[in-house]
Amino acid sequence: MPLLSTDDLRVYYGDFQAVHGVSIEVDEGETVAIIGANGAGKSSLLNAIVGLNPQKRGTVRYDGEDISRWRADAIARAGLTMVPEGRRLFPTLTVEDNLLMGAACRRPGPWSLDTVYELFPRLRDLREMTAARLSGGQQQMVAIGRALMTNPRVLLCDELSLGLAPKVIADIYQCFVAIKRTGVALVLIEQNVAQACAAAQRVYCLLEGRVNLSGDPRTLSMEEISSAYFGTKAAA
Hints:
Elements (H helix, E strand, L loop, with lengths): L3 E10 L2 E11 L4 E5 L6 H8 L6 E7 L2 E2 L5 H7 L1 E4 L11 H8 L10 H7 L1 H5 L10 H13 L5 E5 L7 H16 L3 E6 L2 H7 L2 E6 L2 E6 L6 H9 L6
Parallel strand pairs: 3-8, 3-9, 6-7, 7-8
Antiparallel strand pairs: 1-2, 1-4, 4-5, 9-10
C-alpha cells in the first residue's frame, strides 16, 4: 500500500477545473517528480493534497486513511508538509524564528534546529538575520529547514528551482540525499525536467491537468518525456 496516493482527483477554482482525474502514488521513502509546463496543474494538485484548496473531488489517502476532507493544519500535523512556491517566509522574522515556526506541529522525529543547521551550515551563521535580507537560495534553505522542523513523513516541494542559480539548485538537491536517509518521502514539483528525473524513482508528467506519462524515469527516454511534456504526440 502506498504511503500517499490520489485517486481520480479533480481540482477546481470556481467553475474552472485545473486537475482532471489525476491518480498518483508515493511509497515510503520514495522520491516522486511531478513535471509539466506552466499551467499544467502541478501546484493545483499539490495544494489539493495538503488541504490548501478544498474545491476538489476524488480521494487523497495518506497512510491508509482518507484525508480528502481534512483541514490543512491537521494534514501538516499528520506528517505531510509542503515547501511552497516562492518560499513564503515571514520577512520580518529572523532565520531561527522562521525555522521554529515549523516546530509548532510538535511531531517527534530527527529534525531539530541542530540537525537543520548541520544540513545547512550557512543558516547557523545567518540565524539572527531577518528573512527579507537573505538571498533567494538562502531563503529556500530556510523554507526547506522550516518544513523539516515539522518532522514530516512526506515532504512536498513546489518549484524549488524557480529563480535560483544552477549551483544553488545543485547544492539543494544534494541535501536531499541526507534528508532521504531519515526515511522521508519526497514529492518534487519541477519545470526542470532533467533535475527532477535525475532525483526521482518515479515521474508523472502533467499536461492540461491530466497525467500524460508516468513511470520510472530511468526507463523512459528523453524523447518520450519531451513529447509528453509538450503534448506533441500521445504518450504510450
